[in-house]
Design a protein that fits this description.
homodimer, alpha+beta, Nuclear Transport Factor 2, Chain: A, six-stranded mixed sheet, two-stranded antiparallel ribbon, 3 helices, globular
């Protein structure tokens, strides 16, 4: 790894850490700064494909509306790969907290983030967040642990 | 985009096309050449994280064992982003065919591929393939169309 790549990797890890802090604080603006305007998200919930930063804003505001503060957000096994102006990262993440409608919510997801360096800033141009599928039952597996 | 990036993008599109042809032909070796030995896959089925090319081989051989030939594999909305020795791509994919146990199988998935150029060859070092989750019912959404 070159010194330049090490600096870029550190910048991307800071970026992800900022998003995690913003999620825990339920700070929609703080989350939103990470996304490029034309981000394409393969998000946890339907549809298959969510185009545009406005769709991410709606998804996060629905999550924040469903929970009482504080929100927990854990990131495990974060791996970052950088090359020039393009990078990607993946991790296992768990959002957790008390639902407003009662009970505790939260499960582990797989998260992949794809970045471009735009105007000197690393922005998410694509992300993919999901849970595995049990093909036989058609149910999503929300009970898995890393 | 530079001329170099255009060549790299063309090479990655060829790579994905080779994998698609190999899937349709149920050619396990043809699929397998796309993966780096230390690929980390967030695959359709559990567990959360599948480390290593051998895990991809097991997943694909299970798929190939479940269907009668020929297998259909459609790729839509393929987007490729290249930077130096790192690239990523995403698309909506649909595998389809006649199941050996009877009936037709197949549904649309979201696919993200993350590449590194290793020894002059673009290899998948991370992939993420999933269907969306209906959070209220806990069911996976296998009925979605692009």
């Amino acid at each position: 790894m070159t010194a330049h790549q090490a600096l870029d990797e550190a910048a991307i890890r800071r970026r992800i850490d900022q998003v995690v802090q913003a999620i825990r604080a339920m700070d929609l603006e703080g989350v939103q700064v990470a996304y490029a305007p034309d981000v394409v998200s393969f998000d946890v919930q339907p549809p298959l494909r969510h185009p545009g930063a406005e769709a991410k804003r709606r998804s996060w505001s629905e999550v924040f509306a469903a929970y009482r503060p504080p929100l927990g957000y854990e990131v495990r096994d974060l791996t970052v790969t950088v090359g020039g102006e393009v990078a990607f990262a993946h991790s296992l993440n768990r959002l957790s907290g008390r639902l407003k409608r009662g009970g505790n919510g939260g499960f582990w997801v797989r998260a992949t983030y794809c970045f471009r360096k735009i105007g000197g800033d690393w922005l998410v141009v694509h992300d993919h967040v999901s849970v595995p599928l049990d093909v036989r039952s058609g149910r999503a597996r929300l009970d898995l642990e890393p």
